[in-house]
C-alpha cells in the first residue's frame, strides 16, 4: 500500500532556491522514493507538491527531505505538510 506526502513550496524563489528545489524533486525520483510529483496551486504564495511513497518508507523520506532542506538552507522556501 502507498502513502502520500505533501510539500508546501513558496512560489517566489530566487534562482538558487529554485535550482535546489528542482534538485530535491529529482533526487526523490532518482532514489526511487516516488515516480511522479504533482504540483497544485494552494494560494497566491504557495504550491503544494504531492507524491506517493511506499508504506513504511515515510520516515526515511521525511528524514531525507528534512536533511536536504537544512543543508540547502531552504527552511523559508519549502516545508513538509503534516498528513
Report strand order across the widest sheet: 2-3-1-4
Number of helices: 2
Class per helix and strand makeup: alpha+beta
Distance between the termini: 16 Å
> How would a crystallographer describe the biggest sheet?
4 strands, antiparallel
Task: Specify Rg, calculated over alpha carbons.
Answer: 12 Å
Q: Let me know the number of strands.
A: 4
Low-pLDDT parts are none
Helix/strand order: EHEEHE
Mean pLDDT: 92
Rough shape? globular
β-strand percent reads 25-35%
Measured as a percent range, the helix fraction is 25-40%
How would you explain this protein's 3D organization?
The protein is α+β, with helices and mostly antiparallel strands and 83 residues long. It is built from two helices and four strands; from the N terminus they run βαββαβ. The chain has helices at 15-30, 58-72, and strands spanning 2-10, 38-41, 46-54, 78-80. A four-stranded antiparallel sheet has the order 2-3-1-4, covered by helices on one side. Strand 2 and strand 3 (46-54) form a beta hairpin. The longest helix is centred in the N-terminal third of the chain and has 16 residues, at 15-30.
Secondary structure layout plus pairing:
Layout (H helix, E strand, L loop, with lengths): L1 E9 L4 H16 L7 E4 L4 E9 L3 H15 L5 E3 L3
Antiparallel strand pairs: 1-3, 1-4, 2-3
Helix pairs in contact: 1-2
